[in-house]
Amino acid sequence: MTTHRMGEMTTLEIADTVPSQPIVLLPAGAFEQHGPGLPMATDLIRAERVCAQVADLAGGRALIGPSIPVGVSPHHLAFAGTMSLSTTTFAAVVRDYLLSLHRHGFRRVLVVTGHGGNNAALTTVAQDLLVELPDLELAWTPLTTLARTEVAALDPSEVHGHSGEAETAQMLTLAPELVRTDLLEPGTTTLDQFDPVSRVARTHGQPTLTLPYDRLSKNGVLGDPRRVTPEDGEAIVQAIVQRITTFIQDWDTA
Amino acid sequence: MTTHRMGEMTTLEIADTVPSQPIVLLPAGAFEQHGPGLPMATDLIRAERVCAQVADLAGGRALIGPSIPVGVSPHHLAFAGTMSLSTTTFAAVVRDYLLSLHRHGFRRVLVVTGHGGNNAALTTVAQDLLVELPDLELAWTPLTTLARTEVAALDPSEVHGHSGEAETAQMLTLAPELVRTDLLEPGTTTLDQFDPVSRVARTHGQPTLTLPYDRLSKNGVLGDPRRVTPEDGEAIVQAIVQRITTFIQDWDTA
Amino acid sequence: MTTHRMGEMTTLEIADTVPSQPIVLLPAGAFEQHGPGLPMATDLIRAERVCAQVADLAGGRALIGPSIPVGVSPHHLAFAGTMSLSTTTFAAVVRDYLLSLHRHGFRRVLVVTGHGGNNAALTTVAQDLLVELPDLELAWTPLTTLARTEVAALDPSEVHGHSGEAETAQMLTLAPELVRTDLLEPGTTTLDQFDPVSRVARTHGQPTLTLPYDRLSKNGVLGDPRRVTPEDGEAIVQAIVQRITTFIQDWDTA
Amino acid sequence: MTTHRMGEMTTLEIADTVPSQPIVLLPAGAFEQHGPGLPMATDLIRAERVCAQVADLAGGRALIGPSIPVGVSPHHLAFAGTMSLSTTTFAAVVRDYLLSLHRHGFRRVLVVTGHGGNNAALTTVAQDLLVELPDLELAWTPLTTLARTEVAALDPSEVHGHSGEAETAQMLTLAPELVRTDLLEPGTTTLDQFDPVSRVARTHGQPTLTLPYDRLSKNGVLGDPRRVTPEDGEAIVQAIVQRITTFIQDWDTA
Amino acid sequence: MTTHRMGEMTTLEIADTVPSQPIVLLPAGAFEQHGPGLPMATDLIRAERVCAQVADLAGGRALIGPSIPVGVSPHHLAFAGTMSLSTTTFAAVVRDYLLSLHRHGFRRVLVVTGHGGNNAALTTVAQDLLVELPDLELAWTPLTTLARTEVAALDPSEVHGHSGEAETAQMLTLAPELVRTDLLEPGTTTLDQFDPVSRVARTHGQPTLTLPYDRLSKNGVLGDPRRVTPEDGEAIVQAIVQRITTFIQDWDTA
Amino acid sequence: MTTHRMGEMTTLEIADTVPSQPIVLLPAGAFEQHGPGLPMATDLIRAERVCAQVADLAGGRALIGPSIPVGVSPHHLAFAGTMSLSTTTFAAVVRDYLLSLHRHGFRRVLVVTGHGGNNAALTTVAQDLLVELPDLELAWTPLTTLARTEVAALDPSEVHGHSGEAETAQMLTLAPELVRTDLLEPGTTTLDQFDPVSRVARTHGQPTLTLPYDRLSKNGVLGDPRRVTPEDGEAIVQAIVQRITTFIQDWDTA
């Protein structure tokens, strides 16, 4: 067997890997609205496919554990179909995954989250486990922010983000069969389209003011997803994969 | 789009389905040892693939929501790679899924669990939600026990169950690419192979005495998985799919 | 002192029993409607009196610990007086009882529940304690399902169950002073008396669809409690007591 | 039926009482060491039997709900057989009882605790429910401290309390069949028998320093239980019953 | 540095104190209405300033740890500005403080609460930690009840208590700059001013009936705060400081 | 009264402010090691003093609520005196503060945290409250990262951060009486001083690898605190105060 997916391995095959201490990747997604053109599982799909590419490049030094298909998405609940875990439930899931892995002897885990809404809860898990499992090294990473340069190269709209240029581009290369290109439409693209409070939140950045997405955008989109190509997405994805792979190599040899 | 997978649908497509009140299927698995020949994700794979067949037969009356890849598997934790949620975490995940679906207007959900270890926690969720969401109708089902006749027709070992005849047969038809047929080997197959306490537990049935699987079987298998064919599995799977589909039709027209 | 009730023993007397490792029985009930003729504490009364008979037969190998008078009864809350613990609270109570017993050196506990609504929460406790207290052996049992043959011999109504033939019969022999025989009346006795969804739930069995009892029966009764005698109940009770006693003997000598 | 015990009533009988708003009494005990002469269930027995006398005197204005047999007893866990709920579990049980009663229309509940270790958790429940159930009136009471005058009249030891003069006296009148009079023996009776820290705790009173009972007394007893008679106990019990009954009458007519 | 405030010390200075095992004082307050003349932080201010005087007298044997500014005040939530922790949150805060101190080697902690509403939750923490941290000695104390004699010497109103004579007097000496002497006004001062249920609660004492303060007093005051002087307050404060200091000396030398 | 501190106001004064909807500032700190020269309460002191300056500038549009003196500091627990709340406890405290303020009619709250370890838990609270209190607008802000330009102008060490140049400078202007200038000493100042794993964590930034501070620095310091002056600190503090004040004005007029 040459798979790196633990779900496709047997217990004996996993047992064989423990002594060499591979890094376990856990793909985390969201199940939330992505505007009229992208599917609900967009964030999970991106996380899983990035992990697959990373594991291929890592040459056996990284295994892919089970996914977390639903994340922390209360800000999207006004849009049909969005499903969300409370931050407490999400943290409990991650913690239980980690306790299990730790019990079998794994000591390095990297959670790859396609959804930024999971970042805070991931951090709280990492903080609490410093006390509970001091010999576990836990890292986590978002995707798109690893490719700032490539995203900037798209010259995106003044306002861009969720379901906008960068995210749509990734889907066009990673899962083109799930993109309704004919239904893609711009969402909020300029600051003056926001209501006054949303504008305050977006212009300041910090202090951070958390607002629901139905307040930020009528169709759930920030930016203009029609402006990007699969090639744009490929540049972003490759930057992300490279950054994560380098991190894993550095960590693995530290 | 003709997919029934909510994860592949857009928020607008899901919104369109709500008025007709389709039943939402939630596939739940386990990430646990399945002996030397079956993969860790066996239970999730079976649940997801059965759901796919059911949704196809249901003609739009059933949607498939996000999966729950890791279940309640403390009894398998002695075997490498097994990951388990506590019963509390598992119940919280299911509850959060249901609260989200309910918020969007869905009122009928069927959890399809490939893993019997989830049954109790699913029941506790159903009990607590009778008070909290009285207008939600929540059903759940295991797989193999829906096909008692077909399993009996296999004339299985005196002791059979986890990773044994019935489960292996299902995998041989649903995911043959993941079965290491050459590595399949029998586990505990007769009552006299048990230690005395395990024998008490297995001969009585009730009272129910919960024991870990490393006590019940050296290799994690109950029964002899070498004795079955893909055709055996197909008979079991078709019985399961038919039973669930009939249930959905009856429920839907009630 | 020859009592087997720990509540009537002193701390020194209990200390004396620990080295010989008796099995501790914990009677669990419900505090819920039992139709117009049976009292709220029916399930606790049956559990406690069965435990008393079992302990007498076990000749010192079984002690009776404190009761759990209120169980998991959300499905009966529409009927006046029903009291219910959430599944979480019920599990916490059982867990705290077990942690205390384990601390004193007891390693085998059997929860005897007169109420089927407690089964799932008992299972979740057993699952979680496999990790937390691996050297504790925890068993649990319901009552009536231990006497399937004897119940079938009553030739009960097409629909029967809660407060019906089998349960009333048990009360007629165990606590006749609390049965209002003149007020006993049939509840739902045939499938065609159900509303359509209840009929789906009852005819299928699995998938399991949890419904509240005010939907299943106007007076809270399933079956016809007028058709049974104390002798019917005595046959059921003796079958139950015998099954549990045999289990204890087998366990104790394993 | 003239019983005031809700557990012996039917759902219809309880429904009949709601419009007249009787006060519900909930007896709470402990399952803990009471020295070499008193049984583990001493506190529950006293609470239940006091409630029975109060309900008889209250002429239908008080009903007796289900008991709470195990209380908050971490300070006695060093003595064999003691079982304890965490304060969180105990509070959850009381809260669930109250939510159920409130749902049926009861608005006044009095918890009668035979065990002082439950006092704090009862207070926390009362505090939290001020917000959650503002129209519920919740009272609670211990037993022995209601009879200060009668206890002082016993001229008890310099150090007295748990399993000592006052408690033993109550048991001699309420449950003489469970008192091992021949085994009663004094515990710590004077301040100079304490270790220095225990002496600080006992002489100051406030600040309150919580210590386990195995530090306060070798045999778990404070005081000399041999010095009292059933008549002493009857004086105490009657004072307690009278105080509670008067409270109920005043409350009921307020 | 001669400060006893841990917050003003460095980590190295604190490390130096551990071997000599000083007692750590934790001041706990409330953030709640105190009538028209006293500030919201009254209870915290009194606790902190009493701790400062005690630490000065203790000559290095007592350190002052971080405060708990908000306490358990659900009974005051009808009055603007009152902030309250649930009993569970308050207990979690105290527990986390104690776990941290224990980790560094401190074994004796005294919580000084200016607010009686915290007493019960403090007791529950002390009870639960008997099991979890058996080598920690945890004490707690309220303020005003330590000076019963001095309060009685004020000849207070028939009804007195919250924001009344004793509390106002303390503020007049501890924080006169925060007392609006011109706005002080009497609240409920006699039993006949209560509504009937409040009168039952106040006349009985035990059983304890918990009522919100908007039911007990229109302006949130019990007693007449206009009748006291800074000298009255100084007598009370000195009695409190002396009682706590003596306790600390006795404990420290035990 | 012209104070903006709610703790120094009376309930009536607070009630008067509600109709005009001022923004409530909540200062949050940490109680953790700050190297050999800075006090444990450094983060709280900075947060409180910044809030005071902001409230002065806000001209009544901002009130200061109660502080949170202890934050999320598990990464500093190896250093004596550090106290930490779990992320769950910290979130519960913030949530309870917010529920109380919301109950009184406040709808805009800004948490000002002097400690970056609180950021994630603050975000989780904001996420969960989107569902629970949808009409509450919750913002939070750290301090030092609001003054990136001013910090860069210090030309800090290659490695700098906790207790380093920027933080020490702030304390030199805000609380010089608490800085042991003679004891200030550099900690880790260059990447090559790190152990290999710490170096990976610090050079990558993202993925984020959480490590305890005793691994990052022997004395708990990152950077060289000796290189800064009170004037440096004043520049940083004024930038922070200005940024927050502008945010409040923008929000208030949105």
From TrEMBL, chains A, B, C, D, E, F:
InterPro entries hit by this protein: Creatininase-like_sf (IPR024087), Creatininase/forma_Hydrolase (IPR003785)
Any GO molecular function: metal ion binding
The keyword Metal-binding is annotated on this UniProt entry: yes
Any one biological process term the GO annotation gives: riboflavin biosynthetic process
Key words, A-Z: Hydrolase, Metal-binding, Zinc
Keyword ATP-binding: no
Names of required cofactors: Zn(2+)
Family matches, as Pfam families: Creatininase
Recorded superkingdom: Bacteria
Gene3D superfamilies: Creatininase (3.40.50.10310)
UniProt family annotation: Belongs to the creatininase superfamily.
Name of the protein: Creatinine amidohydrolase
